[in-house]
Design a protein that fits this description.
mainly alpha; two-stranded antiparallel sheet; disordered C terminus; binds protoporphyrin IX containing FE
Length: 263
């Protein structure tokens, strides 16, 4: 079980199932990407350099991991599958405020004092990243397997390499935001423990933060009403225990909670 750092200072941003899926994608993608960069930059100009086949195999192992791990992560947390659907919906449903955010973000990088519109669970750049990962995932697999197991593979190579080229600024931008950028790197805790600083979340994802607050207060009210009606029922009212409040799923109380499962 996750240990909640301090309920008043932090808020649950990513449930265990979301974190598991994230790392099940991130680790193989990073392995594929790093090995691909070395193949392209170091070996394509000089194919006879030593260890090419070791690198090529490392890439293929990354590819196999990318085929296997994400589905396994989803199967492992199948009871939480609605959380993943909720995230997909968050990423693919765009509003005018997302477009405004993207446009103003470009200006905000240049000029101080530019106000960005409030964001939901993901900002528009994160939505694009999410969409790119979702659409290229099956294409990497198909083109990778074609290159691996067939001869007629130049078109597969072209698409495969073009997607890798397109992904590169997203991967580098994502790593920069998650680890180096002072404003955003606070969020990495969300992909480690699940919890992020409340003030940071309120500032960066104001609309999402309000929705979570609203959900918590609705749940507290419904628990209060229920315990008045059936005072003998034991309740856990801990605000953000992730095992007890799946995102946007209408879980309410007692036996309706999904069972607590170790990772
Ligand atoms: C994020 C994921 C991936 C990226 C960024 C990526 C990128 C690349 C790039 C740029 C190349 C060209 C290398 C070159 O010209 O020498 C390549 C080659 C290759 N990729 Fe991927 N790839 C990914 C996933 C996969 C997957 C899922 C598979 C399938 C299992 C796969 C199998 C292959 C194979 C077999 C080659 C040829 C390797 C060789 O020339 O020895 N890749 N990949
Ligand atoms: C060391 C490597 C990585 C770190 C530290 C990292 C960290 C993070 C963090 C902190 C978030 C949550 C941001 C938020 O609060 O909304 C996130 C989200 C996400 N990550 Fe990663 N990540 C890594 C690698 C990757 C890779 C390689 C991919 C796949 C290309 C990936 C795909 C995603 C997606 C799709 C999301 C949700 C949308 C978004 O926030 O962009 N991550 N990651």
């Amino acid at each position: 079980m996750d240990t909640e750092p301090n309920a008043s200072d932090t808020i649950l941003r990513f449930r265990r199932s979301e974190r598991t899926l994230h790392w099940a994608i991130a680790v193989p993608v990073l392995l594929c990407w790093v090995t691909a960069v070395v193949l392209v930059l170091a070996y394509n100009p000089m194919p006879l350099r030593p260890f090419r086949s070791a690198l090529s195999w490392a890439h293929r192992i990354g590819g196999v991991a990318l085929i296997m791990l994400p589905p396994l992560a989803v199967i492992h947390s199948h009871r939480d599958v609605r959380t993943h659907f909720a995230n997909i919906r968050q990423a693919w449903v765009w509003t005018l405020s997302d477009v405004r955010w993207l446009m103003r973000m470009a200006l905000a990088a240049l000029f101080r004092g530019i106000q960005l519109p409030e964001q939901g669970k993901f900002n528009a750049a994160e939505k694009l990243n999410f969409m790119l990962v979702m659409t290229t995932y099956p294409l990497y697999i198909v083109t990778g397997l074609l290159m691996w197991f067939t001869n007629a593979n130049w078109a597969a190579w072209l698409l495969h390499a073009a997607m890798a080229l397109l992904a590169t600024p997203f991967i580098l931008g994502h790593l920069y935001m998650a680890t180096l950028n002072r404003e955003t790197r606070v969020g990495i805790q969300g992909m480690i423990s699940g919890y992020v600083d409340r003030t940071w979340a309120k500032h960066h994802y104001a609309r999402w933060y309000r929705e979570q607050e609203q959900r918590t207060s609705n749940r507290t009210e419904s628990i209060a009403v229920e315990s008045t009606l059936t005072p003998q029922t034991p309740h856990t009212t801990a605000d953000a225990s992730e095992d007890e409040h799946p995102v946007g799923q209408g879980w309410r109380t007692g036996t309706e909670f999904p069972p607590v499962r170790p990772f």
